[in-house]
Amino acid sequence: ELKTSYDNIIVSTPAPGVALLQLNRPKALNALCDALLDDLIHASTHFDKSEECGCIVITGSDKAFAAGADIKEMATREFAEVYSQNMFKQWGSIAAIETPTIAAVNGFALGGGCELAMMCDIMVAGDKAKFGQPEINLGVIPGCGGTQRLIRAVGKSKAMEMCLTGNMIDAERAERDGLVARVYPAEELVDQAVKMASKIASKSQIACKAAKETVNASYEMSMEEGLRLERRIFHSLFATKDQKEGMAAFVEKRDAKWEHK
Ligand code: CAA
Fold first, then answer.
1. pLDDT tens sequence across 239-260
2. What spatial distance separates the first Cα and last Cα of the chain, rounded to whole Å?
């Protein structure tokens, strides 16, 4: 059940089929404290299960998407505590969302902020966005995918540069390097992300989920296994009403009416 309000995020449904989750801890530049993460997981899990929702957009403020995990909350923790509680494991719930997700990044996406954005399926950025993995400056390393998802997005040399120097990259370079799909003027970013989300939400949800699952599986598989999985999932979609409808609509030169079945 969606709560009527959350302490650390603002939830809205700006277009049919689209959920917008805005990180909202302005005084801490949306640092991802445990409570914020709980709110984000709670709301995104709700929308992931909702039949009405076809795409989830996660955004922050103009100044910061998120400046990372909450350093003040972590600073005095001991090994036994972070190990036995498996700190950050719960972030996997965001990566496990089956509904398509878009990260709309304005301002800083640093450390866990960059990692949260990389957990989303598509990243779009405002032209003043800045990305970085500055954990090295704190005597640690990225802990939520920065060493794993970043290298897959931009390649070894660029990922190493970011993780070892802590240098930030701007939106233009993030797009050139393949971290970001598109860059928009900062003030248009959220509208553009919602527009993209609306387009995704207008498709067959079952086909979108299948596409997402199959693209993500490529991270874990050889080319041959991946191609086989892709073909088998493609075959399985012939058991859906949406495949019959989609292909009939094409032949009859009309718009498809998806049942998401
Ligand atoms: N955790 C806790 N608080 C944070 C924070 C963070 N990650 N980032 C910013 N804040 C707080 C600041 O402490 C400050 O609070 P006070 O007003 O109480 O002092 C407030 O947000 C505003 O920040 P600044 O005054 O520093 O703002 P600025 O504009 O001068 O600088 C910044 C902006 C460059 C983003 C700077 O805040 C910064 O470097 N933040 C930390 C970035 C970072 O190191 N992130 C990695 C965190 S570790 C991690 O994420 C591990 C992981 O892999 C999951």
1. 999 999 999 999 999 999 999 9
2. 23
Torsion of Cα atoms, 223 then 226 then 228 then 229, to 10°: 180
ipTM for the whole complex: 0.98
Say if ligand 1 is within 6 A of residue 163 CB.
no
Instruction: Determine how many CB atoms are found less than 10 A away from the CB of residue 237.
Output: 15
Q: Is residue 29 in contact with ligand 1, taking CB distance under 6 Å?
A: yes
Q: Which of 31, 64, 115, 129 is catalytic?
A: 115
Residue type, 209: K
Place of tokens 């290298």: 151
